[in-house]
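re: that chain from earlier
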Amino acid sequence: MTAKAATKKPSKELIVSLYMNFVLEHETVPKSVFKFCKENKIKEEEFYKAFGSFPGIQKSIWVTFFENTMNLLDQNNEFQQFSGKDKILTFFFTFFEILKLNRSYVLFVLDEDKNPLRNMEQLKGIRSEILNFTKELIEEDNSTKALKITQHNPKLFSEGAWIQFLFLLKFWVDDTSADFEKTDIAIEKSVKTIFDVFDTAPLNSIIDFGKFLFKENIS
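^ sequence. v structure.
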């Protein structure tokens, strides 16, 4: 998301780009919409046509990360043939590759406020997207199962996937391994674990995943 020359009628993408560049260059969020617009030669009224506030921009950035991930997956002709488990694996691998390209920005905004609940506010939009995405995957899997007893609860599974996302996000933020290879391991093990839990055969995966987390916490 590289900044371009400002125009009188900026697009949403340009405003987002200018905002991200401001944050990275100044290591703080803009103090006011007025000053931000003046510095970037944008009419304040045009800013408000695109966004109602800076927090609105932050939420939209996370949704854009999600949308960019889905666009890449849609370009993969084999993706639709994957199982639900492989689709979620591929989603997480692709999503964190996109985050890697924007790591400096992500690290800043996730640590901007020492109150974690306020930092979580920016994730509301992507939470809805992930819940809908994973709910649809489980409903799709359920449609292929003849016995209702073998079907998964879409709402419960999607909430589990959201918690998994938050765990992986925190793990990635703290990951100092080369090319974030430990995050890749965490993605693979956590996805296997959550599917095994829902298939009621979790013990080996939970032990394996627990050993991995224990090793990371003491290393």
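Confidence is low (pLDDT under 50) at residues 1-7.
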